[in-house]
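ARCHIVE CARD
Drawer: 12
Card no.: 0347
Subject: one protein chain, sequence and derived structure
Cross-reference: see card 0346
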Amino acid sequence: MGFTWLLTLSEHAGSVSSTAAGTILPRGFFLATGLIYILALGLHRLAWRLAIPSALPILALALVVNWLLHGLHVVSHGQVETLHTTSLALLLFYAGLNTDLDRIRGRLSLALTLPTIGILLSGLLLGLLLWALGHIGLPFLPRAGLAAPLPLGVAMLTATCLLPTDGSANEELAHQWGHHAPKKVQPVLAFEAALGSATAILCFGLVVTLFLGLQHGGQGDFRLGAVQELPSSLLELVRHLLAGLAAGLLVGLLANRLIPLLVSHSEHLLILAVSVAFVAYAMGNLLGGGGLISVYIAGLVLANRPQTRGPSGHAGLRHVLLPFNTTAEFTLLLLLGLLVHPGVMVQMLPLGMVLGLLLELLVRPLVLLGLGGAPRGQRLERLLIAAGGLRGAVPLALSLALLEQVPRLRDVHPLEAVDLATQMQALVAVAVITSLVLKGVVLPRLLQRWVSPEPPPAEAA
């Protein structure tokens, strides 16, 4: 994933080539990073008190820093790649640990179809809607503010970034619902967020494979070559997936055996958990597969084939990794806010808001309806599941890959590729913010009125 992370302390912090003493990092990096994380933590606490998704103020903080401060330091691609990959790997390992089948008994069918078939249907429908908007435009904005009609592959890939939901945001939403929500709603939403993250990454790779174009040649050669290479590309994707599955399964099974042997105190569990995540990622890459898929599968195996119960089991792993998971979410939210171009976000604001509203008010309810009607006793559950599914860190993490993948897609003009990728990254950011405001601020307050239990009748005197 090639992209540049721009971070600054002030205009007078030094030239771009200046580095902090004893490091290869820009001068002021540690001070700026520490202050930003402290502010993010304070905003997280404030968001909890205000009963809003914490991702909103953290994203706002990063955007304000991005907009106000000039004279930016350039951090190398490799440093950003390391930070981004490490954060995403920890998120997926934690998601695997949360993919616990025991928690969704009684709603197994919906919990399994929503983050699999549901994500595929959502991506297809949302991608077609975005493609149509990119051609027809909005009533007040021709072609939705884009310089040229949006290629189908770019629309599908951008829609794929918006498919995964956020487990932490859904937990915050469940806290707002309180006792009004049935007990089985939150486990379904948590399972969707966990399994859906892995499914979305697979869909991302599939879309890139299907719409991959040649780097050279005319338009006719471009399409013909892409079609000729499609079978081999699909086989490579399957091999990539199988290698990741095998690596994750192997590491997960070995980790299950190692926990009773190596963990004698609870503080040892964190060391083992982080080590397992890194080994799973490395093994996936060594076998020619997907490191991120391998990390997720390793966590999934640990969650559903536990050799040890209690503090050293998968529940204990989730507990010790929770601070790392939170830090990874903060990092990805701040990364996107610092990477995105504020001016491009303003340009993409109308289309992004429309896309976010279509996703949450049209696509998700239609997909839930398509997965099967709800029995009378489960209609409230289906309503709350439709109102849940907030987007957060994982969609933003996937959007960072658009800068590398969009220029490789079919029908993308080389001279317009970078600008188009930047616009799509900003579009995802606006759509995520729209989703957070709608489902994290507006709908919970409306639903609390609609689903509040009636007060008990007054006793006769």
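Annotation on reverse: The radius of gyration is 23 Å. Residues 219-262 form the longest helix (44 residues).
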